[in-house]
Write a structure and sequence with these properties.
It comes from Penicillium chermesinum. The protein contains ten helices and ten strands. About 40% of the residues lie in helices and about 15% in strands. The termini are far apart. The chain has one domain (about 5-305): Divalent-metal-dependent TIM barrel enzymes (TIM Barrel), CATH 3.20.20. Helix 6 (about 170-180) links the parallel strand 5 and strand 6. The strands form two sheets. It has an eight-stranded parallel β-sheet. A two-stranded antiparallel ribbon has the order 8-9. It is globular. The relative contact order is 0.17. It has about 325 residues and is an alpha/beta fold. The model is unreliable at about 195-200 and about 315-325 (pLDDT under 50).
């Protein structure tokens, strides 16, 4: 019987350049996570600090560590700001130069999946002119090119509608895009924060903190030129079932659609962005790993996942111990 498996995004355990990737991976394993969504920023930080900027060697070492910890690298993400570009030369450059590098890194990491968030490039800050098109035909054709290149190299892509995406900002729109792309290696990531299709590669569960004031110029989370929803997301996400911390979105209702109505079973990743991740306390990764796995098990009990067994820590690693590499 297929069951759900706990995963967490590497960025959800601490900020790059503050908390190192090996330490975060060890804390994830120590608390029972089986999978990791690997953010390129974490890999880049690891490469710059430890391997003189050699991303390929950083990817190889990351894979070795995950194998020792018994964890799977679900995907490399985010391959962003790609579809619908008005600058077609830039679109070609991303496919000709950036994508092959990502294939090389993903292969070294041992994953066949790359996540693609919907484009939120926005207008040119100097001229105010649009840099992307909402023409669904252009968006679909761009993603078909991506999928076809990936198919030839053995890769899958998972598309996610960001709620601050410039043109694709709802799950319905992302599903229409996936249907339009119509490639077996191009599917959906459904994120409970960004949502509020059966072709689902994995799901993300996360809540949001209720703010006590509008997110305008007077708010401490405000960033000029950044969509308000993005500013909220980057500072105030919470793990599901953290109502005591201010969580209030209907996450359980959304999750019931994933797991009961759609019958999804597979990777359930917790993707948290929060101001708390920047806390320089060396115990920050351990605290977020603990909160994340507690949240995962609470959701499992609420939704009565059949065949679900609570995870035990990886052998030889104590969840309460401090594991942090100094790079």
């Amino acid at each position: 019987m297929a069951i759900n498996r706990p995963a967490i995004a590497s960025m959800s355990l601490g900020r790059p350049w503050i908390h190192d990737l090996p330490g975060k991976l060890m804390q994830a394993a120590a608390h029972g996570f089986e999978g990791i969504e690997l953010f390129f920023d974490d890999l880049d930080c690891y490469a710059q600090r430890t391997f003189n900027g050699n991303h390929l060697e950083a990817a190889r070492q990351t894979r070795r560590l995950c194998e020792r910890l018994g964890m799977t690298i679900i995907c490399l993400q985010p391959f962003s700001m790609y579809e619908g570009l008005l600058d077609r030369a830039e679109s070609d450059r991303l496919l000709d130069e950036k994508l092959p590098r990502w294939f090389t890194l993903a292969r070294a990491l041992g994953t066949d999946m790359i996540q693609v968030p919907s484009n939120f490039l926005g207008p040119d800050p100097e001229t105010g002119k649009a840099r992307t098109t909402g023409d669904r035909g252009v968006i679909v054709r761009d993603l078909q090119r991506l999928a076809d290149l990936g198919a030839g190299a053995g890769f899958r892509f998972v598309y996610e509608a960001l709620c601050w995406g410039e043109h694709i900002d709802t799950w319905e729109a992302s599903w229409e895009v996936v249907q339009g792309v119509d490639r077996p290696n191009f599917g959906l990531c459904l994120d409970s924060f960004n949502i509020a299709g059966r072709k689902i590669f994995y799901v993300q569960l996360v809540d949001g903190e209720r703010l006590d004031a509008p997110l305008d110029e007077r708010h401490p989370f405000y960033v000029a030129g950044q969509p308000a929803r993005m500013s909220w997301s980057r500072n105030a996400r919470l793990f599901p079932c953290e109502e005591s911390r201010g969580g209030y979105l209907p996450i359980v209702d959304v999750a019931r659609v994933f797991f009961e109505d759609l019958g999804f079973r597979g990777w359930v990743s917790l993707e948290l962005f929060s101001r708390t991740l920047a806390d320089p306390d060396p115990f920050t990764p351990a605290e977020h790993a603990r909160r994340g796995i507690d949240s995962y098990h609470k959701m499992g009990r609420l939704l009565k996942w059949e065949g679900q067994v609570e995870q035990t820590p990886a052998p030889g690693i104590e969840p309460t111990s401090f594991v942090q590499h100094r790079l």
